[in-house]
From TrEMBL, chain B:
Gene3D superfamilies: HPr-like
Main location: cytoplasm
Entries under NCBIfam families matching the protein: PTS_HPr_family
Coiled-coil residues: none
UniProt-recorded name of the protein: HPr family phosphocarrier protein
Origin species: Streptosporangium amethystogenes subsp. fukuiense
Keywords: Cytoplasm, Phosphotransferase system
Top-level taxon of origin: Bacteria
Domain HPr: 1-89
Length: 549, 94
């Protein structure tokens, strides 16, 4: 008997397959007495060697070079002679295999953390090795993403960045999490890979391993117990749909030819490598990816080269560059920012320039030089702009370097409320819906229990977007949306109806959004916008626009 | 004991892919090779965890040592590896 479970759809598309659950990290049992230390050491080292072999095997099958490098490094860690020595010392002092592995890993973890900076981030790799080896010793299921040898729907409480790096897009059909929200790592990963995903689906924790389920990432529904034949039919239809949309081409247009630019969110030129997606430019170039994992600020020359590479590779040469978006919530060691009790409300985004103005100056110099070298005319915007004064200061610094199109991200309600004044200083606005939700609804982006508040269909969020768009229309300046909300094909019609002029998203989302706009006239988009603004909750908004939702 | 002092050339430091390549090469030498930063404690060059914990970044000066027949050749080849920008070679993503 099929049963429908409700959650929040965060990445559109349909898929069906068997459920595979991500096992939790193993918990240590009470220490056991060791009768035969040699045999116990053998068990511990066998577990580590088996872990190393399995990680090496997965590295060979890794979908890309980054994932392969991480898995290879982990395999080396599991085989590390220094780690094996620590384990041996533990067993010789009377510990059982599981505790000896646990403590040896804890010891080396401290050494990595002491090295600080990006080395400290490798502690997560060591934790993963520890979990796998301890599970092997205890005979527990392997923690992390399962590898059942057939395609599956991955079910988990939530996914961390470390889990998601290993996801093989050929075998993972869809993601369903019992926690997580529309801006969680799970949601962002799913959209980046074009995987259907439903989050905040509490009841999915009751669905048994191997159950046949279908996932509707648009409606946020999971149907459990559908049977193998129904699943095969859904997969067949989904595959046909993917083939059809992958050939979609051309600029964004409503059915009556109202233009809406469809743009890409990228982190580096690598994201623009030849691919099937046709877009009209880059709407969000997140420059911080160049700065991550760095103990020293990347130099001027290196920045020029990285930016010029993006300017040259961008479709139509159109690129909106966002200056460094870092802070204590996304720490960069070289910034040397003081610890904060509430990082999301602290020194982040443009605010970093209050304490380290030279970092932004160097970046603007590099963007201007890259523009000269590549002949591009990039648009440049700052993250976390809050006041008109901040916007004016940023615009002055950018224009002094010959950057002509200067804008701001609207992520703080204070900025949205003053959009009209901001546009006296700036040439465009780009709305970051993830942070704007977080700050408007006073809800942490990663908070699994507040997912409903972070739903981009919330009318208060749409009202702020409407205010920005209206301010832009009044003076004929572009107002785009570059948050994840732009990737929802139905919400895209609402945003266009509110007056938004461009939508920027990860590449796999473009075809479905293009099709959705092409199926609606501007008048229908405006009707949808009016209905969504008038609704009291997101569920009601969706139902009013799509009867029977 | 033969030693070689070399400046880390890889842009990400002795980390990620460069660390893996170095540790792999060190493990293949027929003798124990050690590595240290400045006057710090030498650690086994075939240990990924120990090499990572050195925290050697781009521009850090490290010293390798080894003893026994063939030590000079082993140290030369490892020092040569560290003096190259291993990130620039065969970059991921292409």
């Amino acid at each position: 008997m099929a049963e429908t479970l409700k959650g929040l759809g965060v990445s559109p598309g349909r898929a069906a397959g068997r459920v595979c659950r991500m096992a939790a990290p193993p918990e240590l049992p009470a220490p056991a007495p060791v009768a035969d230390a040699d045999a116990e050491l053998g068990r511990a080292l066998d577990a580590l060697r088996a872990t190393a072999a399995e990680l090496a095997e997965r590295a060979e099958k890794a979908p890309d070079a980054d994932a392969r490098a991480i898995l290879e490094a982990q395999s080396f860690i599991a085989d590390d002679p220094g780690l094996h020595e620590s384990v041996e010392a533990g067993v010789r002092s009377g510990k059982d295999a599981a505790h000896a592995i646990d403590e040896a890993c804890a010891h080396h973890r401290r050494a990595l953390l002491a090295a600080g900076g990006y080395i400290a981030e490798r502690a997560a790799d060591l934790d993963d090795v520890r979990n796998r080896a301890v599970a092997a010793v205890l005979g527990l299921p392997v923690p992390g993403v399962p590898t059942p040898g057939h395609p599956f729907v991955l079910v988990a409480e939530d996914l961390s960045p470390a889990d998601t790096v290993n996801l093989d897009p050929d075998t993972v059909l869809a993601l369903v999490t019992s926690r997580g929200g529309p801006t969680s790592h799970t949601a962002i990963l799913a959209r980046a890979r074009g995987l259907p995903a439903v989050v905040a689906c509490r009841e999915v924790s009751e669905v048994g391993e191997g159950t046949w389920v279908s996932v509707d990432g648009l409606r946020g529904e999971v149907e459990a117990g559908i049977g193998e034949e129904a699943a095969a039919e859904i997969q067949r239809l989904a595959e046909a749909e993917r083939r059809r949309t992958s050939t979609s081409r051309g600029p964004g247009r409503t059915s009556d030819d109202h233009p809406v630019k469809l743009l890409l969110n990228i982190g580096s030129a690598a994201d623009l490598a030849p691919r099937e997606v046709d877009a009209e430019g880059v709407g969000l170039f997140r420059t911080e990816f160049l700065f991550l994992d760095r103990r020293e600020e990347p130099g001027y020359e290196e920045q020029v080269a990285a930016y010029a590479a993006v300017f040259r590779a961008a479709p139509g040469g159109h690129v909106v560059v966002r200056t460094l978006d870092a802070g204590t919530d996304k720490p960069l060691p070289f910034l040397g920012l003081a610890e904060e009790t509430n990082p999301a409300l602290g020194v982040r985004g443009l605010r970093v320039s209050r304490v380290r103005p030279e970092v932004l100056d160097t970046q603007l110099d590099a963007i201007a030089e890259a523009a000269r070298q590549s002949g591009a005319e990039p648009w440049v915007m700052a993250p976390m702009v809050t006041t008109v004064g901040e916007a004016a200061d940023f615009a002055g610094r950018a224009r002094a370097r010959g950057i002509d199109r200067v804008g701001a991200m609207v992520e703080v309600p204070a900025a949205a409320l003053r959009a009209e004044r901001l546009l006296r200083e700036l040439d465009f606005l780009s709305i970051g819906t993830n942070d704007l939700s977080q700050y408007t609804f006073a809800s942490d982006r990663q908070h699994g229990d507040l997912a409903d508040l972070l739903d981009p269909w919330q009318a208060a969020l749409l009202q702020l977007i409407a205010d920005c768009a209206t301010a832009g229309q009044a003076v004929g300046k572009p107002v785009g949306v570059c948050g994840e909300a732009a990737a929802d094909p139905l919400l895209a019609t609402v945003l266009v109806g509110l007056g938004v002029t461009s939508l920027s998203m990860s590449a796999p989302s473009v075809p479905a959004v293009r099709e959705s706009l092409a199926a609606h006239s501007l008048a229908q988009c405006r009707d949808n916008a009016r209905l969504a603004l008038g609704a009291d909750d997101p569920g009601q908004a969706r139902k009013m626009i799509v009867p029977g939702w | 004991m033969p030693e070689r002092t070399v400046v880390i050339a890889s842009s990400t430091g002795l980390h990620a892919r460069p660390a893996k390549i170095f540790v792999q090469a060190a493990a293949k030498q027929g003798m124990p090779v050690r590595i240290r930063v400045g006057e710090g404690k030498p650690v086994p060059a075939n240990s990924m965890l120990a090499v990572l914990a050195l925290g050697a970044t781009h521009g850090t000066e490290v010293t390798l040592d080894a003893e026994g027949p063939g030590a000079d050749e082993a140290l030369d080849s490892l020092a040569d590896l560290l003096a190259r920008d291993l990130d620039a070679e065969e970059t991921p993503h292409g």
